[in-house]
From TrEMBL:
Name listed for the protein in its UniProt record: Parvulin-like PPIase
Domain spans labelled PpiC: 153-243
Enzyme class name: isomerase
Organismal lineage: Bacteria, Pseudomonadati, Pseudomonadota, Alphaproteobacteria, Hyphomicrobiales
Source organism (scientific name): Methylobacterium cerastii
PROSITE patterns recorded: PPIC_PPIASE_1 (PS01096), PPIC_PPIASE_2 (PS50198)
Family: Belongs to the PpiC/parvulin rotamase family.
InterPro entries xrefs: PPIase_dom_sf (IPR046357), PPIase_PpiC (IPR000297), PPIase_PpiC_CS (IPR023058), PrsA_foldase (IPR050245), Trigger_fact/SurA_dom_sf (IPR027304)
Name of the gene this protein is made from: prsA_2
Keyword vocabulary terms for this entry: Isomerase, Rotamase, Signal
Amino acid sequence: MSKTHTLSGASALALVLALGGAAIAQTPTPAAQPSVAASVLPSPDSVVAKVNGIPVTAGDIAVAAEDPALSLPGVDDAQKKGLLVDYMLDLKVGAQAADAAKIGDTPDFKRKLAYFRDKLLLDEYLEREARKAATPEAARALYDQSAKLMKPEEEIHARHILVENEADAKKIAARIKGGEDFAKVAAETTKDAGSKAEGGDLGWFSKDRMVKEFADAAFKLQPGQVSDPVKSQFGWHVIKVEEKRNKPVPTFEELKEQIDQALIRKAQQDLILKLRADAKVERFDENGKPIAAPAPTPAPEEPKKP
């Protein structure tokens, strides 16, 4: 959290942040705030409060609400808006005090202000420009291209029984191969607490999800077959494969959010590289002397034709 945020140390919002939301039920919101917070404000310039004559607007609250440091999971919208008003009042009155103390006139503050201005400008610019790349057409094209490269991956639906020694595993395998129900025996004997209540059911999984010894044995079985005892780092297993299938390719809708983010990241990277390539960059050492730019890497020569 930045120094600016800590100005609200005595506010209801700071209390919520410190206690993880536990204080909400104990800290009543001032009577005037719920109506302001719950109402639909007509414009960003609408004044929701004032401190020493300085207004706090709906736009100020909206900006604060986007700050990750001020996220309030589990808090309803009306409470959150009221708490953000408290925070902005503390922020404004703290900033007034800092301004009166001439904090803004110091070289160190001016450098920080310039840095954060540049950072905010870049973030907004990248966000605006990159969003243009995440069009429905581009998203669909990337999905279609990726789907073609997805190789079918085998999955199995299996059960297992885990015990500590080989002798017990052999006895259990014999019982099941003799006709006893696998799920019933698993519920009675397995040491795997995670699957015991489900009769040893592990659900669907691909080969890379399991330790090698287990996966190698399981994927050799056909549906309905039961393995001989298999040793892994966890103990001894008896495995039964229920079903096999090729893992379904995720749908476009399932991957849409990931695809959009990939398009945005790629567009941002390309934009930064272009801006850097078009800019005149000069570097200097600690004595202020120019540092020679590294020589560009030569392009590889094309192989000569015979």
